């Protein structure tokens, strides 16, 4: 389902943006912690601190997961002993995403603590708009997302924002597709993008 284009959604102004630290960048007090989450896509490398989430790094996929792999549970395989609240919230959210999508809307979005998401910029506006407005099982074109973010002529800048996204899956850049309906490029590879879109479509049909 492609998200309708046009003016900025009326719900957007009333929704809270994800919490971020008010300091620019990561200060000297930021102690980064790392964890590995074994998911249907492989091992996701997640980093963050007490203040918020830093990054999610995706593995490269050479083939689509089999049926058994795609239905497996998500388990923390490294870093459980150093879990901060934002990392725990991220883990809970990703487990719900892969295994229990109906729970996603009831879960908090972790606070973010990445410089790109702290600075006032069009890229940040695009990423937050995407997070708030394009929900599980939906898709939007680069042009439509540019319009939602307030500048319909900035489709190329939207593409740059997607490439810069430090927190994929949670900030769902995989839901941004070409106007032709083709999936387009993705940091984790085209196979992963197609798998994520198919996963959401299938799970949304089960929930409806």
UniProtKB/TrEMBL annotation:
It catalyses: a 6-O-methyl-2'-deoxyguanosine in DNA + L-cysteinyl-[protein] = S-methyl-L-cysteinyl-[protein] + a 2'-deoxyguanosine in DNA; a 4-O-methyl-thymidine in DNA + L-cysteinyl-[protein] = a thymidine in DNA + S-methyl-L-cysteinyl-[protein]. Its EC number is 2.1.1.63. Residues 124-201 form the Methylated-DNA-[protein]-cysteine S-methyltransferase DNA binding domain. Residues 36-110 form the Methylguanine DNA methyltransferase ribonuclease-like domain. GO terms for biological process: DNA repair; methylation. GO terms for cellular component: nucleoplasm. Its cofactor is Zn(2+). It comes from the Eukaryota. One of its GO terms (molecular function) is DNA binding. Keywords: DNA damage, DNA repair, DNA-binding, Metal-binding, Methyltransferase, Nucleus, Phosphoprotein, Transferase, Zinc. InterPro entries: MethylDNA_cys_MeTrfase_AS (IPR001497), MethylDNA_cys_MeTrfase_DNA-bd (IPR014048), MethylDNA_cys_MeTrfase_DNAb (IPR036217), MethylG_MeTrfase_N (IPR008332), MGMT_N_sf (IPR036631), WH-like_DNA-bd_sf (IPR036388). It is found in: Nucleus. It holds the Pfam family DNA_binding_1. PANTHER family: METHYLATED-DNA--PROTEIN-CYSTEINE METHYLTRANSFERASE. Involved in the cellular defense against the biological effects of O6-methylguanine (O6-MeG) and O4-methylthymine (O4-MeT) in DNA. Repairs the methylated nucleobase in DNA by stoichiometrically transferring the methyl group to a cysteine residue in the enzyme. This is a suicide reaction: the enzyme is irreversibly inactivated. This is Methylated-DNA--protein-cysteine methyltransferase. It comes from Galbula dea. The lineage of its organism: Eukaryota, Metazoa, Chordata, Craniata, Vertebrata.
């Amino acid at each position: 389902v492609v998200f309708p284009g046009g003016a900025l959604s009326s719900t957007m102004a009333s929704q809270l943006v994800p919490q971020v630290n008010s300091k620019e960048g990561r200060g000297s007090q930021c102690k980064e912690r790392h964890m590995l989450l074994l998911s249907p896509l492989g091992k996701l490398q997640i980093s963050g601190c007490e203040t918020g989430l830093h990054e999610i790094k995706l593995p490269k996929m050479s083939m689509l997961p089999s049926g058994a792999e795609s239905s497996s549970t998500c388990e923390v395989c490294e870093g459980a002993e150093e879990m901060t609240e934002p990392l725990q919230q991220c883990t809970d959210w990703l487990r719900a995403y892969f295994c229990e999508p109906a729970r996603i809307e009831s879960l908090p979005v972790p606070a973010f603590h990445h410089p790109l998401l702290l600075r006032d910029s069009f890229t940040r506006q695009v990423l937050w708009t995407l997070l708030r407005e394009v929900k599980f099982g939906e898709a939007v074109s680069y042009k439509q997302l540019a319009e939602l973010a307030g500048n319909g002529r900035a489709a190329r800048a939207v593409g740059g924002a997607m490439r810069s996204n430090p927190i994929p899956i949670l900030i769902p850049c995989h839901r941004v597709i070409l106007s032709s309906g083709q999936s387009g490029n993705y940091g984790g590879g085209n196979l992963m993008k197609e798998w994520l879109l198919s996963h959401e479509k299938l799970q949304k049909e089960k929930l409806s």
